[in-house]
Please model this.
Amino acid sequence: MASGKKKLIGITGGIGSGKSRVSRFWSSFANLPLINIDSVCAHLLDKGNAGWLAIQKEIDESFFLRDGQLDRKKLRIAIFSDAELRLHLNTLIHPLAFEKMFEAIRKYEKDTVLVDVPLLFEAGWEDHFDYRVVVFADSLLCCRRIVERDSVDSDEAARTISSQFSLPDKIMRADHVINNSGSWFSTILEIIHLARLIALEKR
Model:
């Protein structure tokens, strides 16, 4: 196993694919702990925390609000528009998130842990997981979900999608895939089948 005694399942997929919903259902159905890396990163970027301190001197002061907190919406738009900025900030934040992830993993008594990792392959973390699961959906559906969820226009949604590895690249690197393009009921059946399959496997 990549983690020694624990079986680690990394769940990823393009933005708007519904990977977090899939992760939450899997966690609930199988009674497994779930670590959400987006939440880990969000906490790291709170004022005064390690991520905030790491990027404070690396980005323009206009990305900070009057109280010192990050203007997360402005920064999000910037990193999806500027590949160089995105890469630079990722090199600062990803190691911190990686450390926090394994701190959390070690605290769980369960022998299997789910981790929702949006940038699993982009961050180069894939070898640290026993299973790499890619959740995917039709690109137009993903775009519509992003527009509705983040209150952005379709052009910005498309730029966000294009900033990540392509779906074929992710699928080629995956151990398993879940199609979340159809009804939620169909997706649930896929999750249950895969969860049971992995539970029976020994590594």
About this structure: The domain at 7-200 is CATH 3.40.50.300 (Rossmann fold). The chain has one domain: 7-200.
